[in-house]
Amino acid sequence: MASFQLSALPTYTGVSKSRLQSLYSDISRQKHSNPTTYNSNIAWWRSTLEDIVSHGWQLNVPDALVLHAEHSLQDCLRYEGVGKPLCLGTVITELITSRSAIPLQQFMNASQSIYDPGWLPYRIAAFVIGKPLWWSLQQLNLVGTDDESDSERWKRVKGDYVLVGIVERAAEALLAVQRSRDLGLAERLYSFDSFRATFASAVLPGATLSDRDIRTLIRYLERDKRVVTTEKEVVKFVEPGADASEVTAVDRGILELKTAVINISVQIDSITAKIDDCKAKAAAALRQQHKSLALSYLRSRKQLEDVLTQRLGSLEVLRSTLLRVEGAAENIQIVRTYETSAATLRALLADPSLQRDKLERTLDALADANADAREVDEAVRAGGDTALGVGSATGDEDELKAELAALVAEAEAEAEAEARVKEQVKEREGAPTQHPTTGQRHPAQEARTHAPPDHAHGREPVLAE
């Protein structure tokens, strides 16, 4: 893989060459001398390896979920000016220890969930033998000693590993795609081929899952997520958290109908394309004055159209049959749900607490208890009034109500008076009015208009000597 591809990864963006040289060097000695830097380097390598694998950039292998720890991986990571990494043995050992990477065979063959702390062989060995975990890993040849060089670790850890982080992301993306589809019974059933055709290119951006990836993902969904059940080449989606559901004969029949519908639809598309091709070739032959050749193409088109008519009829029959079968199967599930609900309701109603006599006694007791509570509450309230000297509460209450009404009436009267004053002020400050018939100003207004300035300001005029 070229250096420019590596440079496009987020982990390489903005990283100096000196930093890359440090990351590519043998970092095994840093675990005890500088654990902070060591852990940071391991985290960088984990993200880098996950990006390379999920993009499908491993050399000579199409897998996007499985890391192949071989010499080709070192060549894949070669960076111009830095060279090949000298720390892959240490990195993969740490990924195994942290369970970020799991040997492929262990992942596929394990019966317990990978999230169960006791599922891996070295966990069982640590429990049975009673030795420290690191000692157990060494005995199982999964890790080496602290003074082991990276080249020695690299020889020991070569192999195929499932990268758990990528599998988790792919599973979530796959389930999102499945939830967006029709949730009818037929849409929950897949053959291996239809499962691959539906999801291989839909779960990881820019990558297509290989057959090994698909089987790895199905194993994860079945054992660890518990959202599918499988039998041979049949994959059936089930409700999350539900008990494991077997693949029934009805499921197989529905899947066969669904597969037949898909196959005939593909045939119809192929026949349609051939018809269009015959029409185009016939037109081209006519333009070249090859009438016999054009007639041959037209005959072929006519035969294809007859086949197309038959296929369309078969497709319609199969689709209607599939809908009826799917509907009948779902009706069975609905009736079973009704039966379960009825049995549950009868079991609840048979409880002694819901018998009529018991229920009446309980309600009577509740009514008596509420009456006693009201009596106690009234007694406590009366005692409190007596202690506070509130003896004539009723008379005082009437007097207070009357006083409140008087205050309200007084406030309303003041508000009305204030409103009248404001209205009068507005009328005085308004524009001068005209005589209603002549349209001339009132004489008093005319006099005020021509009055001397001193009168306008409310002062007596000054007489000249």
Brief synopsis:
Helices cover 65% and strands 5% of the residues. It is built from 19 helices and six strands. Helix 6 crosses helix 10, helix 8 crosses helix 9 and helix 14 runs antiparallel to helix 15.
What is the topological layout?
Layout: H1 3-7, H2 17-24, H3 30-33, H4 35-54, E1 66-69, H5 71-76, H6 88-97, E2 101-103, H7 104-109, H8 121-129, H9 133-139, H10 150-157, E3 159-163, H11 164-180, E4 189-191, H12 192-199, H13 211-225, E5 228-231, E6 234-237, H14 249-287, H15 291-349, H16 356-388, H17 393-429, H18 443-449, H19 453-456
Antiparallel strand pairs: 1-3, 2-3, 4-6, 5-6
Helix pairs in contact: 6-10, 8-9, 14-15
What does this structure look like?
The structure is a single chain. The chain is mainly alpha-helical and 465 residues long. Helix content is 65%, strand content 5%. The strands form two sheets. A three-stranded antiparallel β-sheet has the order 1-3-2. A three-stranded antiparallel β-sheet has the order 4-6-5. The model is unreliable at 124-137 and 433-465 (pLDDT under 50).
